[in-house]
Amino acid sequence: MMRTACRAAEFRPLSNREILAIARSLMALRVRDTLCALAVGALAADVERLWLALSRLLPPPWRAEALVLLGFSAYVRGDGPLAGVALDAALMAQADHRLGQLLMSALLSGMRPDEIGTLADTGYRIAHELGISLPPRQIRRAG
């Protein structure tokens, strides 16, 4: 996943095999929850571009996963409008998406980005349990 994010950051096209592998991995909740940590890490901008690209390429239900990750990424850096659009599209693709519903509810109720960003802690915890090293946290802001 990290190599794929780096390829996306370099604006190199992803192969169909890479896209399929990512789509499949996003359906595993522990993988998806771990990937939430990347929204607050040193590669956050790169993986946000990856989620954006995947949200355009993938059909439902995989598209919903990419859109939720895009929405979370935008939300934690303070871009509420993009977060809202991404989460709305995710829920259109999969109305019963639990994380999408949770994030949309938080956004609509005015929860601050730093509060919702604590969800990334779960990703870091899961990565640690699995022996996966993630990029260190980095503060990002909208704009």
UniProtKB/TrEMBL annotation:
Source species taxonomy: Bacteria, Bacillati, Actinomycetota, Actinomycetes, Mycobacteriales
Descriptive protein name: Uncharacterized protein
